Amino acid sequence: MKLSLNWLRDYVATDLDADALADLLTMSGLEVEGVERIGPDLDGVVVGRVLGTRKHPDADRLTLCDVDLGEAGPGAPVQIVCGAPNVAPGQTVPVATVGATLRLPDRKTGAPTPVEIQRSTIRGEASHGMICAEDELGLGDDHDGILVLDEAEAGQPLARYLRERGRAVGDAVLDVAITPNRPDATSHIGVARDVAALLDLPLLLPEVEEPTTEGEGPVPIEIEDPEGCPRYVGLVVRGVRVGPSPDWLADRLRAIGLRPINNVVDVTNYVLHEVGQPLHAFDLARLKGPAIVVRRARPGETLTTLDDQERTLPEGTLLICDAERPVAVAGVMGGANAEVSEATTDVLLESAYFDPVSIRKAAKALGLQTDASYRFERGVDPTGQLRAATRAAALLAEIAGGTIEPPAADAHPRPYAPRTVTLRPARVAHLLGAEVPEADLRRLLTAIGFEVDGAEAKMEAFAEEVMRSESLAAAVAEAEDAGLSVTVPPFRPDVAREVDVIEEVARLWGYDRIPDPATVPISLVPATDTPEAATLERVRTRLVGLGFRELYTNSLVPKETAEQFATAELTGAAVAPVETLNPISQDMAALRPSLLPGLLTAVAYNQARGAEALRVFELGHVYARGADPEAPVEGYHEHTSLIVALSGPAERTGWNAEGRAADVYDLKGALTHVLGALALPELQETPSTEPGALTAYRLVLDAGGRHLGVLGRVSDALAARYDLQAPLFFAELNADRLAALARRETPVRYEAISRFPAVERDLAVVVDEGQPIGPLLHTIRAAAGGLLQSVRLFDLYRGDRIEAGQKSAAFALRFAADRTLRDKEVDGRIRKVVAALERGHGARLRA
Questions:
Q1: How many Cα atoms within 13 Å fall on the side-chain side of residue 128?
Q2: Rg (CA), the chain
Q3: Residue 473: pLDDT above 80?
Q4: 147: Cβ–Cβ under 8 A, 6 or more apart, which residues?
Q5: Which among 301, 310, 316, 299 is positioned nearest to 333, based on CA atoms?
Q6: CB-CB neighbours of 709 under 10 Å
Q7: Global confidence as pTM
Q8: pLDDT-above-90 percentage for the chain
Q9: 810 near 762, Cβ under 8 Å?
């Protein structure tokens, strides 16, 4: 969610800058993912009052102005030379004082260039500053004359003057990651409530005078489905003039990434982001009846929504209808048949509470996710509908010239019932490992809207207990165990148990104040204490040592992605994806069956931003359905997967060497180094050159008779789909099987350098073109016996001297022992190797 700092300051008077506020919110559980600064800073630009003007004695188009700068000036009016045609005595104007820096258009290129305002002499007259036009301040494009302000105090900073009028000047926008359990934080007031509690400041709410709901309103409301819509408020505003929004309102919407449309729609969006209650405006004249009926969709009903798409409504979808037809999909999007236009004069404001499950199903079925559905799915304040409608109506009356017509229609078939939770201070101390003073408990919870019973109520309960108990000691014990009675505010549907309240205390009191876990009376077992986790930590350490960086990607993916990557090409067996119930969005409809889609997204993102040499890995859980004898739950299995990948140059071009692009052998070498530390059983490699949907070619890896994973290159089609800019080589392995097959203790063996010379022999054999080299190496090692110290392939030849369909493979063998080896002994080993190659692979010595 985008959060404007200037807007937030309307509700909590904090002087914290954007970075400090981001840290504060993140440490309290509202993670700030980024801060974007927008609008000019206007440092050194103040409000000035033009006391008098006179013509420049030596320039017809220049004017000499005597300007009062108030406390920002030297104590007396200053002279400023101005070239604007509209400057006049009595005006209040923006003045860039000496030392201020403005971004002014360059005379040659027109590009904004920083220019420091200095004392200067213009055609023989001193000028102590600059009276500015709108474009010179970065507030617009107008350069026809200076910007004339409304009545303002001379000397006050222009930025403060503009902020008081809602302009986005020197603003900062915080991108806050709202977790599904915090619907209260999907608005500026919701976040301001937390900030006020954390800084012990008052929460400043806009004054709203709610209209009466007694009597019959101008539009009757009928709710046929009270479970789907427990409350619906309708408020009529007549005589509005639809047009552009004032600058302060448009600026605030632009700051958080919304496009201003017109004053009516903009007001509903403004209130949505102010209080978190979605609103919708209907053109009253276009409603049949006029009437509002909340009901479920019937078979075959259609509606053209505001995005000009005609949609067939799934049967059972919650709808807002007039007397004849649907006019909106409840909580998701309005219909074009009752849309507000320039001809609209009378508006019906809708402010309702809808069942979160109903809205989530409708949004998913229609493939629509809007700002409204985002909030209704999480749960809005079930008691805030009338207040939000009144706030919007008051703004429309102010900026669109409308008149509120009472009474408000308030259909409320299922009133909200408050929830009460018992909070025991002793339980707080037990879970947090530290005692939080009761006064702090009360202050923090009260600051975020919870009601905590007072001392009088506790004493009354204690007195009643004394009267019922046989002993004073028993009464005291029971009264202490009773704890505090905490009433949960209606805008916190996530708080239902005592532990939820304790979590609120912890995040507001400060996670950094909770003692070291070693002192907390809770048994904590670090995950790395298990043998399997320790093995994977060895893998992680080796990869980091090779220059690979670790990724963390989302385990939720679109259903289509899960289906594409749930394939035997990666897993070695046919599997199906695991779908989620009631997904938050279409992008989170299934659990990932592989780490590859997250890796592809991360690599594409980095490549698009100029990163070339990428070396990355991830350890994470993957999920699938299918026959798996190792699955703890029949039909479903989950395991830890390891993916390692590289792309881009392996070596960059330098003054003394040519560059080289990374290839699959670079990846295989890194993986061999990592797996070598685990002392796995004999690793089997089975190549497959047949291209697949995901891989151009791959090497299937097995160990101890169990499938480990694959190593290969991403297919061209998949690379194009993710816009990869260079070939991507990857290996994905079942990390749980790696850990199970690895030897827990792998002793390091050191051998002294032999005092006796080694014997080296080269061996070249001719084999079929399709013969992999790996099995040949295995055969050579087995046949050569313990005297063989090393073997490596050093040459592959195809050409005129070799028959078609065959290739020559040349190996370098090195023999060594703790004695001097004789040629006869080595020759015998070579003969055994040649015989084994002939029997097992049809090889023959190259002539």
A1: 13
A2: 37
A3: no
A4: 93, 94, 132, 133, 134, 137, 139
A5: 310
A6: 25
A7: 0.64
A8: 67
A9: yes
